[in-house]
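REVIEWER CHECKLIST
Item 1: Sequence provided? yes
Item 2: Single chain? yes
Item 3: Sequence as submitted:
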Amino acid sequence: MAGLVVRRGGRRVLHGLSFAVGSGSVVGLLGPSGCGKTTLLRSLVGVQRIESGRARVLGQPPGSSALRDQVGYVTQAVSVYRDLTVAQNVRYFAALQGAGARDVAAAVHAVGLTDQADQRVERLSGGQASRASLACALVGDPQLLVLDEPTVGLDPVTRESLWTYFRSLADRGVTLLVSSHVMDEASRCDSLLLMREGRLVAQLTPAELLRRTGASTPDEAFLRIIREQDTREAEGEPA
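Item 4: Structure as written out by the authors:
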């Protein structure tokens, strides 16, 4: 990704973002709500028009047909058929990916919905419906998972279970790009992309974040980076 610029509704939303991520890692895309995280993820999966810059996903342009069975994408909004059961939804996406029944069962189990597999999504809680969307993205064998705030609204036990599963996927060579506005999830990632107002503030590891700022928590560290940036801008230095 080099010099990525995205404009929506006549307003520039992403301002020349440049970064690269390694395979087999969990990358946290962190920043406050409205900073451009979702727009960046949409750009990477090919559903957002890019004004300028160069973007490559697994060596291909975003949205390329070659990526259809290589990339799993979970939006913030529930993106499954509410009048179908959990299992029916996952089987549908499995058929698109060429995956089998074993993959369906594994995906449903991974998100903790085995007991609800035969329930229609419309009868599930909001958190359960979000997990059904996640199961559809997990089915098959994606090499990249793009997850837009997948743990929002989930109880602590389910959140812990999902992060454990994310780690197991990374250990198998899958790359995960996980957005969140909850800074305490930073410690679960291998590397971090910190965003603010459509710009990349820093790319570093969780340990480097704390060491660089001298902070004891990711929240405090992010705020210190923002204050440093504001001070430089006020003094006329480049951000």
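Item 5: Key structural point noted by reviewer: Helices lie at 37-44, 86-97, 101-110, 126-138, 156-171, 206-213, 218-234.
Item 6: Recommendation: ____
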